[in-house]
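Blinded run. Sample ID left blank on purpose so nobody reads anything into the name before looking at the predicted structure. Input follows.
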Amino acid sequence: MQEQCVNLIKTAAVQKAYRDRGLKVHGWVFDVHTGKLIDLKIDFEGYLKDIMEIYHLD
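Blinded prediction complete.
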């Protein structure tokens, strides 16, 4: 699940929305057995900072 969130952060559209509108990505998983949301506690801004340096997307 965490890798899917990171893949989303790599997209140009998400990076542009983060830069222009302050978009945040949250990694949550729904547990069908308990009915609760589990926060994966992904460091969105940390990942994004590293990724933007590599991909340089506009």
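Unblinding after everyone has recorded impressions. Residues 2-55 form one domain.
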